[in-house]
Amino acid sequence: MFQYDSDKHYPKETESRVVIRFQDCDPLRHLNNAKYFDYFFNAREDQVPKLYGLEIIDLIRVYKAAWVVYNHNISYVKPAMVGEWVRIMSRILWYNHNTIIVEYYMTDDSKTQLKTVLWSTMRYVTLAEGKSTDHSGAVQDFLKATSLDLDFVTLDILQRVKQLKAELEKGKLAEVGKR
């Protein structure tokens, strides 16, 4: 279970290095559009326990609630190709009392070319009734410790793509996760 420690620095971003598998590609050797979701979700699921000592399933068991996706916004910038090594980063951009927005993005292995950006908006709901409920306890602590808490109201995904591309060109993305 996540134990918040005010003296500890919590990285705001997860990162994985993965290879694009042949079985996940279309005849043009591009990663199939639907497969980006699998790559993104699997990468975050692998990294969260390593970075934060937290298995999301533990939060679900204790609080009897889980996040349910109700919106995806994805921008395909450059194709990921079969056999290519890529970097997948994710971070919680924003949260409130019952909703989170997680940003996933993929770059080439050297983090110089943006390939895809995905925003997933999720509502926190009870397992028993499937009704919206507030974040509390360790869930709230985790969000507070790991969220970028961006001013999301003024941001759209096309602006974000431009921003990420500019940061990649300047080599600044490597610094984001260290904040």
TrEMBL record:
It comes from the Bacteria. Keywords: Hydrolase. It comes from Algoriphagus aquaeductus. Pfam families: 4HBT_2. InterPro entries: HotDog_dom_sf (IPR029069). The keyword Hydrolase applies. This is Acyl-CoA thioester hydrolase. One of its GO terms (molecular function) is hydrolase activity.
